[in-house]
Amino acid sequence: MKIIKQILCLATGLVFIAGINGCKKDTNGTVTFYFDANGPDATVTLTSGTTSYTGDITQNYPNNAPSCGAAGCASFVLPEGTYNYSAASSLFNWNGSATVYAGQCSLIDLTQSTGSVTFWTNSSSLGTITVNVFGLSDNITQSFNLGPSQCGASGCANFLLPAGSSYSYTANSQSGAQWSGSSAVTPVIEKDNCYVILLQ
């Protein structure tokens, strides 16, 4: 009889332990950062005290918000709480706070507004032309008789720039030709628009 009591007590203890583990609360949640418009890649950093977490945004979702943890987003699984975040690309900077809720996902859209400028030439005698805009640099490596077929065409100097402003540029060719000065100003860049500029 004594042996039976000990077995029952042991079984009861196991059930109690299993019950505790089965009811354990998940205190982690997810926060996902994404782009809804075209732009350069960005690095996102979340901080809590002296601890930091880093992830990259490498693609955009212009039509619909992505699912939690979607490809190309910066996603973090963290204990619930509020975290400060900073994010930076070659064009923009963002700062704010993100709240992580246990068992839930929060989506944060890092908004950006950009337009495109494509520089091209119709003269093969100029050689490679290096164009500088907004601290960025790209090369024209081929000439086009009638202009490029599309904005961002290969062989052109292509730039993605913040919308709402105009930008001075400079350009230098292998043959020694130069373009610069107050007359070398791009149009005001509008969101999602593309401007094509001929250097000759």
Task: Describe it.
10% of the residues lie in helices and 42% in strands. The N and C termini lie far apart (104 Å). The protein contains one helix and 14 strands; from the N terminus they run αββββββββββββββ. The strands form four sheets. It has a four-stranded antiparallel β-sheet with strand order 3-2-5-6, with no helix packed on it. Strands 10-9-12-13 form a four-stranded antiparallel β-sheet, with no helix packed on it. The chain has a three-stranded mixed β-sheet with strand order 4-1-7, with no helix packed on it.
Write the layout of secondary structure elements.
Layout: H1 2-22, E1 28-34, E2 42-48, E3 51-57, E4 74-79, E5 81-88, E6 93-100, E7 105-109, E8 114-120, E9 129-133, E10 136-140, E11 157-162, E12 169-173, E13 178-179, E14 194-198
Parallel strand pairs: 1-7, 8-14
Antiparallel strand pairs: 1-4, 2-3, 2-5, 5-6, 8-11, 9-10, 9-12, 12-13
In short:
The protein is mainly β. The protein contains 1 helix and 14 strands; from the N terminus they run αββββββββββββββ.
Main features:
single chain, 200 residues, mainly beta, 4-stranded antiparallel sheet, 1 helix, 10% helix, elongated, disordered N terminus
